Backbone:
């Protein structure tokens, strides 16, 4: 089932921009990008099209839209509640305390609020890790929000937040069977703007027997898999990646999230099987109890990671902050002030240009959609953003990648296209801002239902 209408047949020609293509055959150029029928038609210098609407790209950077490979969208109306929370405080307040009281409408509002903030800050694809599948209606409401917002979404079907303690950390419950209905009736088309993956708990959050059954189910349905591993001391004890490898379950269809306390050998196992990883660097440096970002250790293992926000209850929902956090933690490694997992000498480093790649093409690879998006390659869908380099905070933009990473924010994002459709132009969202009033009402209702006091 698809809620999209016919493909966007409008033609757009962006002229004279600094193009950061993320395609090694094109590289970074000062030139033009032609969009036709919702796709990148051409990238180069001196392009002309008499039928296209021309957008002036002078003093602007054009790059693929950011791809967030792990965000719990349903929490979009609860953003910025606990920047000083520990992991247990987050679980107790959000998943255990508020999660059971979410109605389908609350999920719809949360997802839509998260999508609109994402688009505003240049995120064109989100992998929605949806552990709010309290009922089929909750699931359908989450998916409907993605169709409504216009973002590209990979919906990762998860487990309920009712009886939350029964679904994690040693759970014997297998993945909800409703994923079969979603696959067969709701998100059957893997070429659509909204597609389906499976968010599985793996042996770290369930048991090896449950993980084996859940993985078999996902592969039977032809779905890619995401899995949280390396979560603080629990991850150290469980060694989920090694157990998967020893059981013959590790595969290239998997994305491993966090990996903070996964060992270097486990990271090499992920690489050897062609699997991918998602680093939620901002959350990992903010939240005590998870461990530190594994970005440099992943590079040492041969994995170029993707990046993710995780939960807006704790960190900002934009990729600029995620990129800066990854870079800040790397500087601690270089200074010898890193966590215990990062004290091996000679860890490889990354720079701002690498971070742009992590946030774009590597995100597409982790989601299994790099044939469609993640780079400005002719033939791919036109998911792109344009960033104003002449804004005060970015001038004089001596190194464009460094300027975007070190100084960029949502206000610098002038244009956002998804599949050639304009979702933000001249720095203004084209639709959806009314949801933020609905989000406040949803938040109030949830706190009241849960018997929790709203912060002063």
Residues:
């Amino acid at each position: 089932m698809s809620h999209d209408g016919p493909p966007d047949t409008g033609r757009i020609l962006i002229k004279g921009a600094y193009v950061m293509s993320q395609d090694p055959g094109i590289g970074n150029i000062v030139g033009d990008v032609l969009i036709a029928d919702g796709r990148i038609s051409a990238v180069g210098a001196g392009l002309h099209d008499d039928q296209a609407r021309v957008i002036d790209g002078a003093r602007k950077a054009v790059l693929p839209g950011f791809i967030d490979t792990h965000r719990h969208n349903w929490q979009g109306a609860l953003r910025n509640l606990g920047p000083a929370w520990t992991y247990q405080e987050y679980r107790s307040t959000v998943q255990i305390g508020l999660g059971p009281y979410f109605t389908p409408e609350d999920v719809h509002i949360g997802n839509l609020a998260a999508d609109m903030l994402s688009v505003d800050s240049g995120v064109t694809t989100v992998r929605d890790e949806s552990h709010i599948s309290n009922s089929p209606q909750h699931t359908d409401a989450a998916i409907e929000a993605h169709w409504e917002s216009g973002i590209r979404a990979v919906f990762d079907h998860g487990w309920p937040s009712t009886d939350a303690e029964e679904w994690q950390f040693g759970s014997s419950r297998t993945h909800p069977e409703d994923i079969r209905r979603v696959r067969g009736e709701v998100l059957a088309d893997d070429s659509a703007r909204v597609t389906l993956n499976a968010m599985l708990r793996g042996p770290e959050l369930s048991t090896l027997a449950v993980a084996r059954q859940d993985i078999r189910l996902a592969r039977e349905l032809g779905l890619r898999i995401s899995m949280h591993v390396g979560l603080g001391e629990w991850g150290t004890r469980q060694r989920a990646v090694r157990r998967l490898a020893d059981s013959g379950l590790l595969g290239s269809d998997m994305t491993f999230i966090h990996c903070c306390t996964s060992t270097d050998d486990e990271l090499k196992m992920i690489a050897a099987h062609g699997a991918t990883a998602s680093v939620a660097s901002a959350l990992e440096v903010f939240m005590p109890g998870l461990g530190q970002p594994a970005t440099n250790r992943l590079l040492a293992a041969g994995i170029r990671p993707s990046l993710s926000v995780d939960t807006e209850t704790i960190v900002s929902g934009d990729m600029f902050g995620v990129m800066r956090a990854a870079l800040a933690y790397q500087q601690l490694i270089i200074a010898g002030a890193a966590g215990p997992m990062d004290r091996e000498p000679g860890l490889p480093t990354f720079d701002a240009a690498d971070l742009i790649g992590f946030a774009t093409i590597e995100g597409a690879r982790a989601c299994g959609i790099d044939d469609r998006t993640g780079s400005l390659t002719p033939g791919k869908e036109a998911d792109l953003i344009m960033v104003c380099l002449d804004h005060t905070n970015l001038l004089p933009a001596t190194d464009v990648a460094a300027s975007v990473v070190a100084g960029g924010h949502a206000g610098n994002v002038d244009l956002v296209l998804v599949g050639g459709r304009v979702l933000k132009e001249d720095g203004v969202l084209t639709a959806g801002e009314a949801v933020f009033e609905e989000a406040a009402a949803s938040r109030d209702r949830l706190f009241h239902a849960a018997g929790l006091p709203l912060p002063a």
Q: What stands out?
A: The chain has two domains: 11-64+379-425, 66-367. The chain has 16 helices and 17 strands.
